């Protein structure tokens, strides 16, 4: 019986295993969390990563589909012989009988919001969201969805070599995941990689700063560039005030409108106005004393935090900063902070780095270590003219299960009497 190897057993790959099993294909599933060889109820092998040896006839496979978060340096990737991304696998199943249109949304921040906005706007065309959010690709394929709107990470793009979208929408690209990609330039290259795979009769919406890149010059489709929200609004032909969102969501909204205009010739500002921004992204709430708090736990990189700071630059800001910054340069935050009325409350694994930067820039900072302590300290000083802002510019996994847990705990601590 044919077997396919699966690298990593999580949210992305579990639906793939189920899909393959339903086709009569058993899987060799390799994951760091498995400590011994075993099987599941359907006969799939559950194996430690170290058990993957392509020359071992017991676990040989003709294909290895991976969870995109596994870095290129991992031994599974280094030893793979027939590695394929989830995108390439399912796009390879397309045929004359079923070949849906697709939109890929990537960039550093705003991917989820833009993907959800586009899915709302294009619902009448059969759009369903997938990729990092929404419906797994295996289910999109099984359901024969007409239009795939995929939030697409740089990890997925790195491992994809054949699949391509009908429209590629790229939000601004800032420093992120440097430890995974190795450099900012490598990160940019992966973000622009789809352009090299897309044929004629495709579209791309790109930040203007990339208009001279070699990937853009080799792109066979039609590219549209934007500098900022004002520039986009002029291209689309809608006044900024009609869109009804503040930054950074204004840019997301305009990009969604631009994509709809390019693919279907529609601009539905009224429908877009019904969209509700998701939790933990500049989510405002007030405590019983009427003081403003903002949960921006999803602000996991420097650019996201810069946008949050700009939004509240006219207030006294009490900023909770820190976590696993994955090697990103935190200095831009302090360069902006020196012009603001701000105090920083440092937590997480990069706290020592933050304390050093605050000293260099002469910015008030408090060493808190943990989120609860930071919130308690802020409560001692926060007034009605200020804002208690969690925008950590770092991932959460050094202290929390996820950014969601971090945000929920922040709200709980802020609202506790």
Q: How would you describe this protein?
A:
The chain has 19 helices and 18 strands. A six-stranded mixed sheet has the order 3-4-2-1-5-6. The protein has a six-stranded parallel sheet with strand order 8-9-7-10-11-12. The protein has a six-stranded mixed sheet with strand order 13-14-18-15-16-17, with helices on both faces. A hairpin with a 5-residue loop joins strand 13 (283-286) and strand 14. The protein has helices at 14-22, 75-79, 86-91, 111-121, 137-143, 154-159, 178-181, 184-192, 194-197, 214-218, 229-236, 240-243, 249-264, 269-272, 302-311, 331-337, 351-361, 371-379, 403-415; strands spanning 3-7, 26-31, 38-39, 45-48, 64-66, 83-84, 101-106, 127-131, 147-151, 167-170, 203-207, 222-226, 283-286, 292-295, 316-321, 342-347, 365-369, 386-390. The relative contact order is 0.08. With 417 residues, the protein is of the alpha/beta class. Helix 4 (111-121) packs across helix 13 (249-264) and helix 15 packs parallel to helix 16 (331-337). It has three domains: 3-84, 3-Layer(aba) Sandwich (Rossmann fold); 95-272, UDP-N-acetylmuramoyl-L-alanine:D-glutamate ligase, CATH 3.40.1190; 283-415, Protein-Tyrosine Phosphatase, Chain A.
């Amino acid at each position: 019986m044919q077997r396919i190897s699966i690298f990593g057993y999580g949210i992305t790959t579990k639906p793939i295993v189920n899909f393959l099993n339903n086709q009569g294909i058993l899987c060799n599933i390799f994951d760091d969390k498995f400590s011994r060889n075993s099987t599941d109820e359907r006969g799939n092998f559950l194996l430690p990563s170290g058990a993957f040896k392509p020359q071992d006839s017991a676990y040989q496979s003709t294909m290895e589909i991976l969870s995109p978060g596994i870095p290129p340096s991992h031994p599974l990737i280094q030893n793979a012989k027939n590695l394929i991304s989830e995108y390439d696998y399912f796009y390879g199943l397309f045929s004359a009988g079923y070949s849906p249109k697709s939109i890929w949304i990537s960039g550093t921040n705003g991917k989820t919001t833009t993907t959800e906005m586009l899915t709302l706007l294009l619902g009448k065309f059969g759009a369903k969201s997938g990729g990092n959010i929404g419906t797994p690709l295996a289910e999109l394929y099984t359901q024969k969805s007409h239009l795939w709107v995929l939030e697409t990470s740089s990890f997925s793009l790195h491992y994809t070599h054949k699949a391509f979208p009908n429209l590629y929408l790229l939000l601004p690209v800032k420093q992120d995941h440097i430890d995974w990609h190795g450099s900012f330039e490598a990160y940019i290259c992966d973000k622009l990689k789809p352009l090299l795979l897309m044929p004629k009769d495709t579209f791309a919406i790109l930040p203007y700063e990339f208009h001279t890149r070699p990937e853009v010059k080799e792109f066979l489709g039609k590219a549209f560039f934007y500098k900022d929200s004002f520039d986009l609004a002029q291209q689309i032909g809608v006044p900024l005030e009609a869109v009804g969102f503040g930054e950074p969501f204004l840019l997301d909204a305009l990009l969604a409108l631009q994509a709809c205009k390019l693919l279907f010739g529609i601009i539905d500002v009224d429908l877009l106005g019904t969209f509700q921004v998701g939790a933990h992204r500049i989510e405002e709430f007030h405590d019983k004393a009427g003081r403003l708090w903002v949960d921006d736990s999803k602000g996991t990189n420097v650019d996201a935090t810069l946008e949050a700071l700009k939004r509240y630059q006219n207030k006294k800001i009490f900023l909770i900063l820190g976590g696993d910054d994955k090697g990103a340069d935190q200095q831009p935050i302090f360069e902006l902070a020196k012009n603001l009325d701000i105090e920083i409350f440092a937590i997480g694994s990069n706290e020592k780095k933050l304390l050093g930067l605050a000293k260099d820039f002469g910015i008030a900072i408090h060493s808190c270590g943990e989120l609860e302590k930071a919130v308690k300290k802020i409560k001692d000083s926060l007034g009605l003219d200020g804002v208690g802002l969690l925008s950590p510019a770092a991932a959460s996994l050094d202290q929390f299960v996820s950014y969601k847990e971090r945000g929920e705990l922040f709200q709980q601590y802020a609202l506790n009497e």
